[in-house]
Each structure stands twice: as C-alpha cells, then as structure tokens.
Design a protein that fits this description.
The protein is of the alpha/beta class. Helix 14 links the parallel strand 16 and strand 17. The longest helix has 18 residues. The N and C termini lie far apart (49 Å).
C-alpha cells in the first residue's frame, strides 16, 4: 500500500470506524442523513480531491453535520486551529485516496472472509448481480453496489463488509494496465473470475494485447498468492491465459466450467429476444435478460454457485427471477402508446459488446419493423475510426430494402459515415435525434428497437420518446 496514506493513524481511524457502525462516505452531502439514521452519529468522511472540487472545502460542514471524523489531505481545513479541541476531529494525511484504500485493506484483513473478484471486458455487472443472488441462497453476501468498481469504489465496497457477512463479491473495472493489479492489492481476492477479454478501453490499454494483459492481472495475483481462478473452458482466450499462469506445481488453482456442465443451452428466438435456457432433461427456464450472450453470464454464476455448494436447480430459479433494472440487457414494452418493444443496453458499449448485441437483435424473428439506434463507442483511441467503420460496414448488409432501420448517434459515427446510405441516418448527438423524434422528422412506432451505446452518449434520454 502507499506510504502516503494513514500510517500511524490507521489504528486510531479503524477504531473510530468500528465503534461508530463501520460507515464511511466521500459525499459530504450524505453525512447529515447518515447521522440522522444513527442517533446523530455520522460516518467517517474522506475528503477526496477532484478535478472540479476539493473535499477539504467540505470537511468542516461534514463534521458539523455529524461526521465522527474527517480525513483531510495536506492540512487542516481553513479556520481550524491545530491547538483547538475541534482539531481532534480531523486526521491529516498526504493522500486521502491512499488512506481510504489503506483502511479498506486493513478491514479486509481483519474480517478474513472469502473475497471473490470479478472483472472482464463485458458482462461484469450482470454477472456480479447473478452471482450475488445465487450465493444469497445459502450465504450472507457483501457486494459491489451499482458500478463502484474503481480505485475508490472497491475500497468503499470492502468497507461495507461486516463480521456478519460470509463472502464478498468485488467487481473490478479498469481502463489502463496496472489498475487490476492495484485493486487486487487492496481487495486481496481468494477467488477470481474474468467474464471475457474483448475490445474495450483500447485507448488506455494500448490495444487488444494490452487488454489481455490488464485483465490477466487478476489471474496473476491468484496464481502467485494461492487463489482460485474460475474460468470458462469454452473461451479460448481465457483458457490460454490460465495455461500461461497456472500449473500443477504452482500454488494457485484453476477450476474450469462449460455451459454443458449445467445441461443448459440458449435460445432467444422463442423468447422474443429474451434469453430462454433450454435445460437438458427438464423444463425450459425463461429469464428477463435480453440476448443469448447472457448464457455466458448465467454459466459463470452457476459455476461460482457450484464452487460454494449451491445446487444448479435452485440457482437456475434465482437466475430466472433476476430482472435487470440498470440499463443493461433490459427488454421493455413502451408505455406511451408507441407500441414499441425496447431492447435497452446503453450503459456501456465497445466493439465486442456491440457485436454481441447486433448478433442477438438481427437474429430475432423477422415480420415486424426493426430499428437500431447505436451510439458511439468511447475510449478506443487510435482504433476508434476503424472500429466504428466496421460497425457501419456491418449495418450496410442489414439496413434498407425492407431490412432494419439504423440511426447512428455521435461524432465518431458521423465521421465513419460522412454520406448516409440507404436505411442509415446519422445524428451528431442524442439531443439531435430526440428533437427529430419530438418534431416527427423521425417516427418510430410498432417496432422492435435496440438502443446500444456508450454511457457518455446519453441514449437513455430517448426512452421516453420511444
């Protein structure tokens, strides 16, 4: 861990943290509410620096609102004298982010419960949600909330764990090499799972091989520290990565699985785009998730469940009950009279996930109107132009002449198709397409509509109009 964190203040702060309900926050606005929920005793407030704000500027108010302590960087807040009684409420460190990470790592050490780390280019959050629901059939589970999977979110997840929990699931995201290794150093996982290695964050990783190395940092940690990697033997990339790192003489272990192990296969045709699991020797299991590609996420959840002693039939029931509500793999019928069925997957996008979504959508039974609304794929760097052009070339084969209608959104797609072709229209932003929908320049009714793009394109603002 960094030596710019808590140092000798670690024991003092950890004692405060434990004595006051094990609560921390980086949001000064939340302190008063958290204090009110616990008889006026607030959380530990970490004053993090940011590009547009400095948490130190809010530390005094956080303490006034009930924070039991404020961890600040560099100096005491303005107006707080070092010889005052008030100064005892502040712990000054060189780096508040490093301090947060150090406290989280210490808490993880003190609890000692099993930690499962999860990363991958696509499907992390859906797989995390499925695994959590499966494990909760038998265990009390602490789990990453939302998308808190970075150098700040992972420590917050660890600090949410309690002595009453049996296992923790920690989602890890990364856009550059070295980030997964750093997160492993904090979370110290015993078990790890990589969903897949795809063409995501190519700019930060420096290309596909960089993505492979970066995600493989989880396997590196497990192999060296005697952990267990659970991986899909149906994925040749992951299988190769396992062979490179684990051997019979190593201290780490690798456990493989295949969808066939659970006797399941995928169908979306009969499900109208939603995943149906065909179960060998049993009844089909209908899920609420869109896309045959979610079979891989389901298989991973069953594999982790089996590792923890949870029977497949019960796990499948839990998977079937999962209803996405996070703008990932959602299917919804419109409620505004347009008659549309929306396939909503606009939280994130990269060439791998875009291809999977297109495969699933194009394979849906024809006979109705199909509309594709695709937003730019972010963080591709020098690969961006070629990857967006590849999507455009693929769409040209299915657009127009009675095929799908395509609406591309964002500057990257605008450059990739400077001259609109049959069945393909381009808009510079989601706002521009929304305006066209409001004015009737674009009319989408009684259609199956796929909405897919990076979060930064904000395609979700189109949902009320669709």
């Amino acid at each position: 861990m960094s030596n710019t964190g808590l140092g000798k203040n670690l024991s003092k702060l950890y004692e405060l943290y434990c004595e006051n309900g094990g609560r921390v926050t980086t949001d000064s606005r939340a302190v008063a509410t958290l204090a009110a929920e616990h008889d006026g005793v607030g959380p530990v407030f970490f004053a993090l620096p940011g590009e547009r704000f400095d948490g130190n500027d809010y530390a005094v108010q956080a303490v006034a609102d009930g924070a039991v302590a404020a961890v600040v960087h560099g100096r005491l807040p303005k107006g707080v004298r070092a010889d005052s009684d008030e100064a005892a409420k502040y712990i000054v460190v060189k780096d508040t982010i490093a301090a947060l990470q150090e406290l989280a790592a210490h808490h993880r050490d003190m609890l000692g419960l099993p930690v499962l780390a999860l990363t991958g280019s696509n499907g992390k959050t859906t797989t995390k949600e499925l695994i959590a629901r499966v494990l909760r059939l038998k265990y009390r589970v602490a789990c990453t909330q939302g998308n808190l999977n970075n150098h700040i979110g992972v420590p917050l997840t660890l600090l949410s764990m309690t002595a009453e929990d049996d296992v923790a699931i920690v989602e890890m995201g990364a856009s550059h090499g070295g980030e997964i290794a750093a997160l492993c150093g904090i979370a110290q996982p015993d078990i790890g799972l990589i969903t897949n290695v795809g063409r995501a964050h190519l700019e930060g990783f420096g290309g596909p091989e960089g993505v492979r190395r970066g995600k493989g940092e989880l396997y590196d940690y497990l192999a060296v520290h005697g952990g267990t990697a659970i991986y899909s033997a149906e994925d040749p990339v992951l299988s190769d990565m396992i062979r490179e790192r684990f051997s019979e003489t190593g201290i780490g272990a690798a456990v493989s699985y295949r969808a066939a192990d659970w006797g399941i296969a995928a169908s979306t045709v009969r499900g109208g785009g939603k995943l149906i699991l065909s179960v060998q020797g049993g009844e089909d299991v209908a899920t609420h998730m869109a896309g045959a590609y979610n079979l891989a996420n389901v298989s991973a959840a069953l594999a982790v469940g089996a590792y923890f002693g949870i029977a497949v039939p019960q796990a499948l029931e839990t998977v079937a009950a999962y209803d996405p509500d996070n703008n990932r793999s959602q299917v919804a019928e419109s409620k505004n009279g347009t008659g549309n069925i929306l396939y909503m997957d606009a939280y994130n996008a990269n060439p791998s996930s875009m291809a999977a979504a297109l495969d699933n959508f194009i394979a849906l039974p024809s006979g109705g109107r199909k509309v594709l609304i695709l937003g730019d794929m972010r963080e591709l760097g020098e690969f961006s132009a070629a990857e967006h052009r590849a999507i455009v070339d693929r769409l040209a084969a299915v657009a127009g002449s009675g095929g799908a209608e395509c609406y591309l959104v964002g500057p990257e797609f605008s450059e990739a198709i400077p001259v609109p072709s049959e069945g393909i229209r381009v808009f510079p932003s989601a706002d521009a397409l929304a305006e066209a929908l409001r004015k009737g320049a674009v009319v989408i009714r009684d259609a199956c509509v796929l909405v897919k793009g990076s979060r930064g394109i904000a395609l979700e603002k189109l949902y009320p109009l669709l």
